[in-house]
Inverse folding.
């Protein structure tokens, strides 16, 4: 990367983090190579070029060790960002019920996605009940997100599962419409204290024409509902 590209990237990163602090952006941290995630955080403060400070951590949370390399996920408006950072010593505040989490100033933006493309089936809309077949066994799950290329699943209990494993997912769309998906596990994480602690991201494989059309109709209906929900506060 030449100096001009580096300067442009730094300016974009600086602007992103300043805006995220102003609105206390939701955030999560995950140690590289680990499935466990420290979630429900909000970006609270920063020292430019030095550190970021997050509130929202609980005393019972398991924090990554100091010096651990982390992936920081940050939501700002309709965009979701992934950044690389490192864990620092936590600090405390009399106003907070748990420690304030500190990490180093990120060096670059790793990924950027449209938020609606990540979670078109939620938030604010009921997740779908599902049965997931893997290794000859069936497991109950919730279908938390659905896009044209992948799905997000939540399981009430963890079980042996590996990346690249193939899953068969069966669910019913609103109206009792049967819907089947096959796919490959590309992401896993464990969220402490959640009713669905095991979260799995699946990239979809081939799909029959009928199921593909059902999926497109469902996604469009959910997008319409989300759009209507977002407009209601402004109309009141």
């Amino acid at each position: 990367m030449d100096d001009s590209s580096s300067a442009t990237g730094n300016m974009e990163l600086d602007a992103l983090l300043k805006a995220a602090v102003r609105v206390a952006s939701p955030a999560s941290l995950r140690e590289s190579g680990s499935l466990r995630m420290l979630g429900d955080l909000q970006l609270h403060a920063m020292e430019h070029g030095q550190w970021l400070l997050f509130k929202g951590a609980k005393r019972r949370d398991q924090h990554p060790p100091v010096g651990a390399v982390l992936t920081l996920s940050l939501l700002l408006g309709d965009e979701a960002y992934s950044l690389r950072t490192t864990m620092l010593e936590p600090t405390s505040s009399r106003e907070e019920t748990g420690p304030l989490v500190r990490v180093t100033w990120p060096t670059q933006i790793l990924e950027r996605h449209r938020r609606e493309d990540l979670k078109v089936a939620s938030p604010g809309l009921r997740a779908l009940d599902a049965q997931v077949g893997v290794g000859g066994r069936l497991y109950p799950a919730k279908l938390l997100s659905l896009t044209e290329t992948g799905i997000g699943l939540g399981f009430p209990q963890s079980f042996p599962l590996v990346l690249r494993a193939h899953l068969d997912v069966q669910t019913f769309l609103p109206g009792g419409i049967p819907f089947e998906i096959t796919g490959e596990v590309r992401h896993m994480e464990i969220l402490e204290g959640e009713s669905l602690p095991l979260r799995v991201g699946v990239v979809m494989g081939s799909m029959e024409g009928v199921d593909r059309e059902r999926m497109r109709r469902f996604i469009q209906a959910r997008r319409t509902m989300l759009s209507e929900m977002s407009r209601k506060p402004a109309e009141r």
About this structure: The first strand starts at residue 26 and ends at 31. Residues 77 and 115 are 8 Å apart (CA to CA). Confidence is low (pLDDT under 50) at residues 116-123.
